[in-house]
Each structure stands twice: as structure tokens, then as C-alpha cells.
Specification:
The chain contains 11 helices and 14 strands. Helix content is about 40%, strand content about 30%. It is elongated and about 65 Å long. By secondary structure, the chain is of the alpha+beta class. It starts with a strand and ends with a strand.
């Protein structure tokens, strides 16, 4: 089987990229929908250049793709670790090494002096393959970048609770007790249609800002625009769940999640300050875990960050890695 490396435009590759991502059940971070939302919001008017390196069979079937960006002689994966919990290429099993070879060939053929490959997903082969750049005259540095705590839920709700530390199990039950006492006044639902998600996104972002001061600073007008574009495009391909907790028909908390690989990924959240005493922020995340259990999912990924609540809810660290290349020879 012959493989061909192609450098192409985003627009020409998007349909086949979407098809490859769906076939691999890849996380939304490696989808063209996520990348286009990021690029059109943050990079379209910048001096960055976008490069798409694709690997395809003679039939035209896509087997791998790496979205890259460059600024002068510095290269990196397209996207930004501030909003993309994972970054990097996408490839069909068995073609990872071929794609990394194509990436390194591109760097060698250009005037690249450095490359910064952040956001390498835990358990992937990308780090070990990229470190082979030492054979091409690059110095390579690899380090931990972040943690994404993950909790396994394949043993059901009772199994999940029993796996928690006793004090955490008591705390989970305590946080849910006030909502149970409100009985029929409480409603928790997963919004999945594009129209429903679009209708609730403005209030979701307002609650993000209400719930934490750093999120209020984070949510610039540009960032709000990104969230709107991202939620719209990913809802169209059924990758988004916006969980909505309401009390007496008033929005109390929301959790913005992705779905991939039979896993629920908690991307961001917010709650209404007036319901803080009911612990709706933590309770809404517990209810997300319970919904993942009921849906038969295998795990819940809290994504980047080491906030204490992630461990109180049973999260175990999975490490995101970062590889840097520096040219040492001509």
C-alpha cells in the first residue's frame, strides 16, 4: 500500500478530516470543527500561518492528519493549550509513525529552528515518536505539562461510590441531600440539540463568570465568541452535552461536556451565585457522573487542572506531555 503526504488547505481537507475523526471516535480537540472555531476566533487575523499535513492512500482515503501553525521559524500544533485540553495529530492505528515522519520531514524542509508540541494525550504514541527527532539533528526535551484526572465508572453507580474514600463518599451524599429535599423543584437534564444548546449558552457563560473570579477574567468578548462557535459546530456533530440543573425553573448550574470514546469529558462549568449555599456547582458534576453511569460510559474525564474537587470525586491523574524540539545542526 502506497501512502502519499499532502500539504493542503483547511477547506480542502475538512470533509475527510471530519470523516477520519468520526471513524476513530476521536476527542473533539482533534476535530476540524474545534480547530476552525479556534482559528477563526483567535488566529485568522494574526501573523500565524496554518499548515495541514495529511497522509492518504492512493484511493484518497485519509489515514492521518496533523494541524500545525508556524510563526517565523517556530512551529507548533495548531490550537492553544488554554482552551484545548489535548493537542496534536490524528491517525488511524498503525499510521502514527508515518505521520510523525511526515511532520519531521516538513520541519527539515523548512527553515524551522524550533518546535513546541504541547498537549500530547495520555497513553498516546506521539511523545515516543517525536523524540526520534534526535536522529535528525534536533535536541529534544520532554516533560509533564498538565494532569487530566479521570474517574472510572464502568462498575456502575454503587461501584463508583464504593471506590471513593469514605469521607469523599459521605461528602458526595451530603452535597446531594439538599437537592433531594427540594424534590420536584429540581430538574437535571442533558441538552443535546443545536437549538437547545445555543439558547442556553449565553446564560451558561454568565454563570461561568459568576462562579469564579478567574473565569470572569477569562471570559473576554473574544472568548465568549469562541464558546458560541465551538458549541454550535460540535452540537451539529453530536459531540456536546450541556447539562442543565434548574431549581423551581430557574437555572442553577450548567456543565459543558464532550462525548467521545464512551467517555464524558467535563470541559467547563458554572453556577448561579444565589444557589451557592446548595452546593450546586459540585452537585451538578456528581449528577453528570451519575448520568455517565446510566448511559453505560466507562469513565469521566475532568480534563486539565488539579482542582481538589476532581480528586474528591474519585479522579486519578492522567498526565499530558509536552515535547520541545530545538535545532542543533544545519
Amino acid at each position: 500500500m502506497t501512502l502519499t503526504v499532502v500539504q493542503c488547505s483547511f477547506e480542502s481537507m475538512q470533509p475527510r478530516w471530519s470523516e477520519l475523526a468520526r471513524s476513530l471516535d476521536a476527542t473533539p480537540f482533534t476535530s476540524p470543527e474545534f480547530h476552525q472555531a479556534w482559528w477563526s476566533t483567535f488566529a485568522a487575523e494574526s501573523s500565524l500561518e496554518r499548515e495541514i499535513v495529511a497522509l492518504q492512500r492512493d484511493s484518497g482515503a485519509l489515514v492521518g492528519l496533523a494541524p500545525l501553525k508556524r510563526c517565523g521559524s517556530h512551529w507548533s500544533f495548531a490550537g492553544d493549550h488554554e482552551v484545548s485540553d489535548y493537542l496534536g495529530p490524528i491517525a488511524a492505528p498503525g499510521h502514527e509513525a508515518d505521520l510523525v515522519t511526515a511532520i519531521l520531514d516538513l520541519l527539515d524542509a523548512s527553515d524551522a529552528l524550533s518546535a513546541d508540541f504541547r498537549g500530547l494525550e495520555p497513553g498516546s504514541e506521539w511523545e515516543s515518536l517525536l523524540t526520534q527527532a534526535t536522529d535528525r539533528g534536533w535536541s529534544v526535551t520532554a516533560a509533564d505539562e498538565a494532569v487530566c484526572p479521570i474517574v472510572e465508572v464502568s462498575e456502575g453507580w454503587d461501584g463508583y461510590l464504593s471506590a471513593l474514600r469514605s469521607r469523599d463518599r459521605r461528602e458526595v451524599r451530603r452535597k446531594l441531600r439538599p437537592l433531594r429535599q427540594l424534590r420536584g423543584a429540581v430538574r437535571f437534564e442533558a441538552l443535546t440539540t443545536p437549538d437547545a444548546i445555543a439558547a442556553h449558552m449565553p446564560r451558561f457563560m454568565d454563570m461561568m463568570a459568576e462562579s469564579r473570579g478567574d473565569k470572569a477574567v477569562f471570559l473576554t468578548d473574544q472568548m465568549r465568541s469562541f464558546f458560541e462557535r465551538l458549541s454550535s459546530s460540535l452540537a451539529e456533530i453530536e459531540r456536546v452535552r450541556l447539562y442543565h440543573l434548574s431549581i423551581a425553573d430557574e437555572s442553577a448550574a450548567m456543565v459543558f461536556c464532550f462525548v467521545a470514546r464512551n467517555q464524558l469529558l467535563l470541559y467547563n462549568s458554572g453556577y448561579a451565585a444565589r444557589f451557592r449555599d446548595l452546593s450546586v456547582g459540585l452537585a451538578s458534576k456528581v449528577l453528570c457522573i451519575r448520568d455517565a453511569v446510566e448511559e453505560g460510559m466507562t469513565s469521566v474525564n475532568f480534563l486539565r487542572g488539579d482542582e481538589p474537587y476532581k480528586y474528591e470525586l474519585g479522579g486519578v491523574n492522567a498526565v499530558v506531555r509536552h515535547v520541545q524540539l530545538q535545532r542543533t545542526s544545519a
